[in-house]
Amino acid sequence: MSVRIQHEPFDPGAELNALHAANLGIGAVAGFVGYVRDFNDGEDVAGMFLEHAPGMTEKALQKIIDEARERWPLLRLDILHRVGPLEPGEPIVFVGAASAHREAAFDGCRFVMDYLKTRAPFWKKEQTPSGPRWVEGRSSDQDAAQKWRR
């Protein structure tokens, strides 16, 4: 189980393949990769800057991992999130969940992404033709996270 926050780009395929490399008991891997888009809310986006609260962000992500492990028999769960300047087309986030069976891997991966979008302290500023703007949270993200509440 790992949480990594970094400025450097990453290879999503390599991250996905690494999930099962050391454990032949893993029968299913589910992954999610989020990318910087070149538009948002009908406006062009030339780039993005992601900020985080060092220390606090890692703890928040670890708490999400811990909760996922309580719910599903996950053999591995990794979160990699970039910060700093990003260009359209670059990967921002990777979540990978590995389990003996597909249902736990799918559910664990979706749960982590839904909670990451609503509970992790990241702030996004987009560069647009009309100037920089902070990205607000979406109600659809809150709705997605709500379905996991017990």
Automatic annotation (TrEMBL):
Enzyme Commission code(s) on record: 2.8.1.12
CDD domains xrefs: MoaE (cd00756)
Keywords for the protein's UniProt record, in alphabetical order: Molybdenum cofactor biosynthesis, Transferase
Region named Disordered: 125-150
Record bears the keyword Disulfide bond: no
Composition bias, Basic and acidic residues: 135-150
EC main group: transferase
Catalyzed reactions: 2 [molybdopterin-synthase sulfur-carrier protein]-C-terminal-Gly-aminoethanethioate + cyclic pyranopterin phosphate + H2O = molybdopterin + 2 [molybdopterin-synthase sulfur-carrier protein]-C-terminal Gly-Gly + 2 H(+)
Record text on subunit structure and interactions: Heterotetramer of 2 MoaD subunits and 2 MoaE subunits. Also stable as homodimer. The enzyme changes between these two forms during catalysis.
Name of the protein described by the UniProt record: Molybdopterin synthase catalytic subunit
Gene expressing this chain: moaE
